[in-house]
Every structure is written in structure tokens, then in C-alpha cells.
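Memo to structure team: turn this sequence into C-alpha cells by end of day. - J.P.
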Amino acid sequence: MMVPRNIVSPQSNKPVMGIVQDSLLASARMTSRDTFIEQDLLFNLLMWVGDDWDGVIPPPAILKPRPLWTGKQVFSLIIPKLNFKGKGNRFPKKGADTLNWSDGTVLIHQGKLLTGVMDKKILGTSGGSLIHVTWLEKGSEATMYLINRVQTLTNNWLVTVSFSIGIGDAVADQSTMRNIESIIDEAKDKVKQLVQRGQRGELECQPGRTMIESFEAMVNRVLNAARTSAGLSVQDSISEANNVKSMAMAGSKGNDINISQIIACVGQQNVEGKRIPYGFRRRTLPHFAKDDLGPESRGFVENSYLRGLSPQEFFFHAMGGREGLIDTACKTAQTGYLQRRLVKSMESTAVQYDGTVRTNQGHVVQFLYGEDGGDGAWVEKQKFPSLLLGDDQLRKAYSINLSEGRDKQGPVTQGVALDVDVAAACRADPDLETLLEAELDRLKGDRDALRAIFACREPDRDADPFAQLPVNLERLVWAAQKQFECGERLDTAVLDPRVVLEGVTRLCVRIRTCRRDVGESNEQSPEATAAAAAEADDATQLFVILVRSTLAARKVVFEHRLNRAAFDWCVLRRPFSLLLVSARRRRRDVVPVTSSSLGGRPGAAHTSPSLHATATLSTRRSLKNHAGSSARSRLDLCKRGPTPARCAASWPRSPWASPPRR
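Reply from structure team:
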């Protein structure tokens, strides 16, 4: 079936399937540091590893007094052979994680889980999770096997060791309860002071608000802060052995707010984003005095679920809960109907053999899918290292020292010496200095172009160095280091910078989208040459800039310390080509479900604007970008309809597209 191919969605370029509930909880508990498995249980679990297991049992982590295996060792048997690094829920939000004391940094080397706990951030549907990386690196079938085996292995382990939750997990110690009571009493006193200041007219009005609106905002802030403080007090007091907390940390069920409401206090109940309004004459319920502005009469629930709610608190809690139910039901109907209309309006839109997006009538929607021809399922969040660097910082980060070394060593750059023979060959080449300066000039030009592009982003994002692009270069370099045993294990840099400069230049030529039309003459006027140069700054420009800045000569030679075999494998041979081919948008792919899924996603009810304006604007941009000497022939092609013979020489091609048919 085609289910594995839909594990990652192009809607938000991240997985829509992941490990949940029992399997997620079992994965987190199995991979904890204090989990050990005895021999009889190990042999039972090996039956659930999979058919392609090589039969090699890992050596026990503890030999005496009896052999014991860690949960990480058993979990490693079902992980594909890849490299992965990520941060789990246990990673501290503040402060440093010295020596990984929290076990929150997940590190997988060649399929072996070395550190970290497999929680929701690693096995869930977030971008960059293990599910996502496996799908990108190993394919859809390997991801399907990983998901299946994680569930079978961990569920059978959990059946043996058991897990349950009791009332004892919801009880805090006496000192914590006294601290919670003092926090709530302090919040009540602050609200009382606000009421008195408002009655005396001493309350300052916030900009754009009346005195009553300002008062309500201040009271809400005080009461929400009280609930947050009480919740933090509870979370600090209960240990990781608490079953409720273990579920929240694993991400299988619940969160910190649920824990604080069970043990500390439920908190303020809101209707339409405000405190409970008056339903009777100048009061919320007949149980309170008229014009009572205190916390209790306006929906603050100071009791916890464990202690039990009073009748008035229960009524207010039901009011807030009913609003959520009605709101969810209405939004589900609205977004469902919106998504249905979007799908119906675009159901005939598809990517044709010439790379264009057209309707069944042959009308062009886009000249190239997404204006770059890439499949949204294959892009990842990647960082541009040169965006925030000034000229001096850029030269310091990317220049190479080729002067004489000391003590029979080659020249030193970034604390790493260049191999003596390579350094001698570099010094003998009179053109190398010119090539390195030209590379620095290109990097400066790329940085300036990047700033101009990012300046068109939404406010406060022009300095964000991250963008969504295909082919994760850092992970590709890491895989090359592991496979060819280079990187930090090499004391000296052994790769010739000239090889890097030549290889990266050839790679950038390969991944350009636009090409000269086959029917055009080789002799062009200066105006046509300038137009061709402007057209070369196409949709792959960001990716070319990323390649140049990540695979610059200094980065590859001295920072990554690749050897020749690793560099060729990484850039010039199969892996890069395969990833680029995978990232293309396939011909005859139907567009509407991909595009209209922006209006509704699984498990969520929300509203989203129509995509019609976006599609229209995109079409106009495509017409503007591709206007020129060949615009007339392209518009004629639009009228006549697409065929492989007509479009072979006229349309811009994606860098990861197959060659045009003749």
C-alpha cells in the first residue's frame, strides 16, 4: 500500500504519523538510564525485533553478579543504521546540560543509541525527529518498519514490567501544599488591593482601555501568575518516579498544566477570553454579593481536582468547558467545509510532464511547481552561517592561511595544520590565492543577496538565519565523516583546497534551474546576455548560497576535515544526486490535496484563509519572471497545450528533474 509514502506531509514538511500513547511511554521508560533487562526477558524481546535482524546479541552492559542489558541496547536493535542528534523533553530549558546530566541529548551513531531518552520530540511528529530523519535518509519502507517495530518491541516490554497510576501519584507533600496555599492567599490579597485602588480611582488606565478593562487585565495577570507559580512548585516537588510526571515527560499524555491542576489549583475560568461575566443582576450567581469583584465570584477555582471543587467552582468550570466544546464543534464544521471547497476547486490541477502546474483545460497555474520544482516533503530547516557576519568576520571565518608552518608542520588554520605535502602543492600553485580570494568575494556577494532576500520576510524575521531547503548538508557531511573515518579523528587536514573549490563549483552548476533554450543561438547580444544572467538568479539561488557557505574550502578542509574519498562521496557522487532526485516534484502529481491541506490538518480545528489569492499572485510572479525573449513561444505553448515534444526546449527545468524527452 501507499501509506508509508504519506508518513511525511508536504503541507508542513514534517511527519503526520508517529509513536503515541502506550508505545511512546514504553519507549521513554525503556531508554531511561536506570532501566536494565535480564537475560530471559531479553530473549523474549528479541522475537519482536524483526525479520532482518542479523542475529547478533549485544554484549551485556553489566556482567556480575548476573548479566544485564540496558534498555538503550535493546532499542538500538530496531534503529536503522544512521546518525542522529536531537534534544528531548528532558533537556533543561535553562542552564547548561554539562556532560548530558539530564540525559536529554539524544545521540545515535550508526544505528546505536548512545545517550538520551526516546520521547515525543524524538519519536513524535515534530520536524527533525527520528521518524523524519529516517524517512529522509532511508526511505519510506524503512520508516514503516521502524514505526512497526518500536510499537511491537516496547509494548511487549511494557506488558512484562507493567505500568499503572494511582491516587498516590496525585498527592504532594505537606510543605508543597503549604507553599501553594501561601501563593493563592498572596494572589487574593493582590486582587483585593487592586479592587480598593480601583474604587478610590487610583488605578492607571492602560493604553486603549477603560479603567474597568485595565482592572480586569491586571486581575487576570495576577491570578494566572498564581496558578503558574503553584504549578511550578508542584513540578519541582514531585520526582521523576511519579507516574503522572513520567507520562507528561514522555509526551504520551498530559502536560505540566494538567499536573498543577490535579495537585495545586485549577485556576481562573474564562468565557470569551474574560473572567466569568455577570449573569444575574450585578453578580455571577445568587451565592455572591452584588458588585463583588473578588476572585471567587468571577470564576477563580482555588481548589485542585484532588481536593474537589465547590458547587460554585464546578458551575464556573462547566461554563468554561462548554465554550470550548461549542467552539471546537463550530470550527470543525467551518474548516471542513472550507477544505472541501478548496479540494473541489483544484482537483484537476496537476504537475504536467513539462514541469508546469496546469488545470485539465491546459491553463497554466504555475510555470514551475512552487516556483522551484521542489517537493515540499523533502525540505528541512537549515541554517545560513554567513548571514549575520560582517566583512571582517566573514574573512576570519572563511579565509585560509597558506604561509609557512613551524616545526615541520604545514600552515595552521583554525588550530589545525594542513598536511605538509598538500601545503607544498598549494604554495606551488600561483593561481590558488586568486581562487581563494574569488571564493571570498562570492561569499560576500551571496551574503548580500541573502540579506536582500530575507529583507522581504515578515517583520522581525529578516535576521533569522534559518530557511526551508532540501538536502541537509550538515547531516550529509556527518555521515561522510563516520563512513570514511575522518573528521575530528584526523590530526591534520589532508584534503587539497583546490579539489574543494572545483567540486563545489561543478556542483553549483549542476543544481541551477534555468538553462538556455535549445532553439536559441549561441551568439547573443549583450542585452540578451544580461537577461540570461538575471534569469540565472532563480529559485535555486538560496540552495546554491547554502552549498557555498556550508561547503566552503576552509569549512571542508579544516573544520569538517574530510578526506578525498569522503568529499567525493558527499558531493560528487551518488548520495547528493539521489537526494536531489528525491526532492523533485514528480510529474503527474495531483496538487489540490497538498495545497488545500493548508486549510485543515489532522486533529486540529482552525480557520485558514483561502489560497486563491496566493495562487493568483504566484502565477503573476511566474509570468513576470519568465517574461523575455522566449515569453511569446511560452504563451503559444499555453494555448496549444502541453506535450513532451513541445515543451522539451521551452520551459525552465528543476535541478532535480529528469532530462527532457526528445
